[in-house]
Amino acid sequence: IVSEPLRSLGLAGPDTDGRVAAALAGVGLPADAGDRYPHEFSGGQRQRIALARATVCDPRVLLADEPVSALDVTTRVRIVDLLGELKESRGLTIAMVSHDLSVVAALCEHTAVLESGRVVEQGDTREVLGAPSHPYTARLIASVPRLPSALRLEKHDG
């Protein structure tokens, strides 16, 4: 599955196996992962395989639609970290669709907020999420789940 984009784009050749192994290694999977069946992988590993497949052709832009949905919290963190590493190490631009504002905050420099298919606010992510100017953006931010105040750690002067 990782080599399919190379074949589809006519880029397959004698170095295909090496490129696949490098793509798998680049997302933290061993080269022998290519010899295993899909049911043998966890959800996080499957997401890593999808990233290897998406990056095996060394694209400049990666389109990611809800890249961490349906993953457990620790796996989500690992995938967000991996996307950040790929972005930095490859100079990759990531265009992402996400309802998870923590993922947006972690990975995106620029954010556009859509309401009913229309852009209602856009700009630097820190500004959009830190000081929203549109009521819809403010409602989105207010809807992010937070720990109840009774569970938050208090700062103690010591």
The proportion of residues forming helix, as a percent range, comes to 40-55%
The domain count comes to 2
Rg calculated over all Cα atoms: 19 Å
CATH architecture of the largest domain: 3-Layer(aba) Sandwich
| CATH level-four homologous superfamily name of the largest domain | P-loop containing nucleotide triphosphate hydrolases
- Largest sheet, if any? 2 strands, parallel
Shape: globular
The CATH class label of the largest domain is Alpha Beta
Mean pLDDT: 90
CATH topology of the largest domain: Rossmann fold
Tally of helical segments: 7
Distance between the termini: 56 Å
The topology string of helices and strands comes to: HHHEHEHEEHH
Unreliably modeled segments: none
Strand content: 5-15%
User: Which sequence of strands runs across the widest sheet?
Assistant: 1-2
Structural class: alpha+beta
Number of strands: 4
Layout of secondary structure:
Layout: H1 4-8, H2 16-26, H3 43-55, E1 61-65, H4 73-90, E2 93-97, H5 101-107, E3 110-115, E4 118-124, H6 125-130, H7 135-142
Parallel strand pairs: 1-2
Antiparallel strand pairs: 3-4
Helix pairs in contact: 2-3, 3-4
